[in-house]
Model the fold of this input.
Amino acid sequence: MSVAFTPWPDDLAARYREKGYWQDLPLTDMLTRHADSDAVAVIDGDRQFSYRELNRLVDNLASSLQRQGLKTGETALVHLGNVTEFYVTLFALLRIGVAPVNALFSHQRSELHAYAAQIEPTLLIADRAHALFADDSFLNAFVDEHRSVRVVLLNNEGGEHSLAAAMAAPADNFVPSPTDAGEVAFFQLSGGSTGTPKLIPRTHNDYSYSIRRSNEICHFNERTRYLCALPAAHNYAMSSPGALGVFLAGGSVVLAADPSATLCFPLIEQHQITVAALVPPAVSLWLQEIQACGSNAQLASLTLLQVGGARLSATLAARIPAEIGCQLQQVFGMAEGLVNYTRLDDSAERIINTQGCPMSPDDEVWVADADGNPLPRGEVGRLMTRGPYTFRGYYKSPQHNASAFDANGFYGSGDLISIDEDGYITVQGREKDQINRGGEKIAAEEIENLLLRHEAVVHAALVSMEDSLLGEKSCAYLVVKEPLRAVAVRRFLREQGVAEFKLPDRVECVDALPLTPVGKVDKKQLRQWIADRALA
Done:
């Protein structure tokens, strides 16, 4: 038995195997190859685990789950934060062929119920440290509603449901039973800030290739010491190259609960971190901290800072090597598959001004107009892609898949991009992030990037607000260093050569912008702020 998913057509699958992209190995191979190594795999606060210890814990948990009746082809819902137990759980489930959905630790009851309704999990693994599971009220209601759940394990629990006890129990005569490498290994969560994320089936073959190729481009090796400060379950922090890339290379992962400078700077200094991955809002906070203390000395060991998850403005990008003192690598990827990187030997201009190019020779990427027709190089349109690690359909979502994919299996991500003659991508915004002001289209990210050029602006977000005459108007939310009036903002944008219809109709200065669980600006929340004010 295996989890249903949309497979690649036979001709493409044969091509990807022939070219060596798909090696028909389980994802657990990246860990078992280091099973006899005493090198440090994970540093988690005061705890430290070698590869040998990590493999032992994985086998113990996998064996324990088998004894409790978990079978290959079943599913699990996992709700753990940035703790070693997340990786132990992931690899243990992969070893017995149980496909998990890894919910973000910031997710709450509505998300967990929605995921369970989709996958009907046999197993729930959660953490008493999360408010939802601090007592048994939500847990009991959850299990009562989702009758498929037969087994519950909890981190930070000492009773019969103890995850720690299951990890400590010796693996007696354990025999791994992973799903076939061409089958679903686990589910990733789609990006976006509206609604419940759709589920993305990822196979051993496609995900392994994505990690291997990322390591080649990013030069991860056994000396890599990687700071995982973004949610461990997020695709970016897992595979670009992320923690799984570090495990494949035999390096060390250092876990942080969040990407704040006050937490991360001492960790970087203490553990001599060489690589970190951030989203743009966190970059701004790091730069602010450096300015405030007048030194980047704690970051001396850092050689590479990856920035992705949202468009990085050229203004912010240029400050990273100058003020943080390390190389910048832009990462533009998606949990659905396609990942683009600026290369480590690219020119400074290319690294600052583009979001990189596809990592695989067999990534097929083109730009479509509103009718789905190809556009010439340099034109802005919808990103279309397929390839050896880009999925072929969301889980149990036939209606959405019909609009997300074209007749040839190319996935339309909803990103608005342009591609230059060398194949490098510049992200211009999102289709759904356009503001239609009386028929005039405004790409929010274009205005946001211009606003960030203002010396007083720290963060900027442009969102739509309803208007009875024009349909939509625009509101700019700004985090500023000093008071800034709307008239001054519009004057500044005019000086940048912006068309009048693109000027914000309203400007709001706030202490901070709300963020989604993965650190992107939560525009759904900003639009709700506008709606609430209109009703007040």
Observations:
- The chain has a mean pLDDT of 93.
- The two ends are 55 Å apart (CA to CA).
- The CA atoms of residues 296 and 324 lie 6 Å apart.
